[in-house]
Write a structure and sequence with these properties.
By secondary structure, the chain is an alpha+beta fold. Helices cover about 40% and strands about 15% of the residues. A hairpin with a 2-residue loop joins strand 1 and strand 2. Helix 11 crosses helix 19 and helix 19 runs antiparallel to helix 20. The protein is globular, with a radius of gyration of 22 Å.
Amino acid sequence: MKHCLKKITTSVGLVTFCAGLSHAQDIDWGKELGDHSGVTLNVPMITDPFIEPLTDLSARFEQVAGAKVNVDPFGYTTLHDTELLKCSQKSADMDVMGIDAIWIGEFVEAGCLENLEDRIAADDDVVKWDDFTPGFSAQAIWEGSRYCVPIGAYYQLLFYRNDLFEAAGKNPPKTFDELEELAAFFTDNPDYPGIKGFVTNNARGVAAGQEFYQWLPSAGGKAWASNEFGATPTETYSDLTPTFDGAAVDLIKFLKGMMAYGPTGVEGFDWDQRGAAFASGNIAMTNMWSVRANLSNIPETSKIVGKFSTTQFPHAEGAQSRPPAGGWILCVNKHSKNKDAAWDYIKWVTSQEIHAEYARAGGPPSRISTFSDPEVRENWPWTDDLFISSEAAFAEVRPRHAATSQMIDIVGIEVNKALIGEQSPEEAVEEINSKHTKLLRRSGLLE
């Protein structure tokens, strides 16, 4: 049963935070967890900003359950390839796998992941699945079974320099047209020297590919025939016929035009470069995954501490904002020899109690209850916008089946070629549809 925690007035109105419980239960972890003394759990994980609080908290697991936890950091592509290779070799080197939620179909089909449905159901008094944000927890489910548990729910927001906007008497944008108008206003404006208007991910390959998928629903388009907002997973994957169309062409044209308001080299920007550029103080606006906002709040690395705010992801005229949902989930390696310890670690580190500590330290809040935590709200001023975004988020903004990684790469190559003038937007969309169709047919996902 869902209980509302509190109602808070924000810049966009009244926000109600609801959760399965009004506060975390007091759990006797000594009784809840097994004794795993002598076990070392190996956890490959992405090097995103939440890895530090996750590593710090994981060191405490030995105190409560006896097992040491080794969180091993990798870059995005290296993590994917390393985990998949070890899985294909049936390696027991990994115990808990941190994976991007969009890899779940690929990893299940490859035989990498232990099905956690029975464990989650048996321990739901601790797991409290309904307290995870539904826009993201759905991505830990594949073909009706919960294979993983959320650890880092990401939602995209538009970040903007509130000091510049206030000085200029401007309001943050809601539409693509307003975004472009404001980007043009701030770029090379003598009243705001050194400022460029906007940056986003444009780098060829996975960076541009994921970015394009994330913008497309808010541009009024969809990537495949049954990719409808609000559809069940079964409905979503019922017809994978590629449907990049006029909205996709218009989006490429829009993103290409927006590069004029970015710094030199913006055609090669990825997540790290985009975040660093915004934190440098030279960018008026950017869209970012929420977890990277923390980097702009660190005095040692940011020149805009206290000088930026957030608003919802923009949308094309006549369309609705469909903020992309993404992030990271924890799964048990099917070939691990320490499955009980691995499950106990996941159950512990994602629990309401420990997750609240993790979010206070900078980890992305993935539980509804955590959004109302006073310390989280004080530390991260974008919490209200993030909660609103989580309710409007499109969980299936990117595919999650076995061909996902290849499809994203195709989009990122073809879109980037159009952005830098190697082909027209129309040619890029034609190539995407053609290559996706061939790939899906080879993979047995399309007749």
